[in-house]
Design a protein that fits this description.
Layout: E1 3-7, E2 10-25, E3 29-41, E4 43-45, E5 58-60, E6 69-86, E7 89-100, E8 106-116, E9 121-132, H1 136-140, E10 166-179, E11 183-195, E12 198-203, E13 206-211, E14 214-228, E15 231-244, E16 247-248
Antiparallel strand pairs: 1-2, 2-3, 3-6, 4-5, 6-7, 7-8, 8-9, 9-10, 10-11, 11-14, 12-13, 14-15, 15-16
Length: about 260
């Protein structure tokens, strides 16, 4: 579907298309793949004369030589194994390899160990690694959507460090308690590290993305779920603090 916005005398149109498919091989492996094509135009419709142009004329703000179509693809393989050494004790592990079009081989994994101590009390330890590739806008975004606040893609600019996927590694401990057969309370604590985190740097009146080092953080989560017949209620709370040089960072995180 096309998305059109009108702001004053500027008409903006973006027409993205997305396709995705998965090839399943047996019970343990998938080959996920996808393709994204994105077309951007930024014509300005004049409502008043400007030089030789008349009201109603449309002016293209993106250059004729700028790339307006970008194709993304990704091929990957995935495997998972589960073991139950004893009753109430379960271990699950999985791993995945991805080959994105614009980046080198990426990998992710997850390991979970769960123990059910009784009918109402259970614990889990979860560790893993994941990655996130930059979007089409972060890589190939063009100026011209108005006069300011554009995201200019990393590969649109020259003489800048290439943008790479950001990765996160984390470990989490979870305690689950069931009360009165209707209320489930989960308390979890986690430690995570983000490498090559992506944030925005202001350049004049626009922004461009960049990788900005590492960020360590510590967090606590509390979740409560109450079931009363057909009625279900959920409450959630989280405390999150970023860390710097072995201590808590008093400043809020940058935009990313």
């Amino acid at each position: 579907a096309a998305l059109a916005k009108s702001s004053g005398s500027v008409l903006r149109t973006m027409d993205p298309t997305l396709s995705h498919w998965t090839v399943r091989m047996g019970k343990k492996r998938d080959l996920p793949s996808g393709m994204v094509k994105e077309r951007e135009t930024a014509p300005e419709t004049l409502y008043a004369p400007q030089g030789t142009r008349r009201p109603g004329d449309r002016v293209e703000l993106i250059g004729a030589r700028d790339a307006k179509r970008v194709t993304f693809s990704n091929v990957g393989t995935y495997a998972q194994a589960t073991a139950t050494p004893s009753e109430g004790f379960k271990i699950t592990g999985n791993a995945r390899l991805d080959v994105p079009r614009y980046f080198p081989l990426q990998y992710s994994w997850r390991l979970a160990v769960a123990r059910q101590w009784s009918e109402v009390f259970a614990t889990k330890i979860i560790a893993g690694r994941a990655f996130q590739t930059p979007s089409a806008t972060l890589l190939f975004g063009l100026p011209g959507f108005g006069s300011s606040n554009n995201v200019i893609g990393n590969r649109t600019l020259s003489n800048v460090r290439p943008l790479v996927p950001q990765t996160v590694q984390s470990v989490e401990a979870v305690t689950s308690l069931q009360l009165f057969s209707r209320l489930v309370v989960e308390l979890s604590g986690y430690l995570q590290q983000v490498k090559d985190r992506i944030e925005f740097l202001q350049a004049g009146t626009n922004f461009h993305p960049r990788n900005q080092g590492e960020q360590d953080s510590l967090g606590l989560e509390l979740t409560a779920r109450l079931a009363l017949g057909r009625l279900s209620m959920t409450g959630y709370g989280e405390l999150f603090r970023s860390m710097l040089l072995g201590g808590f960072n008093p400043n809020p995180p940058a935009l990313y």
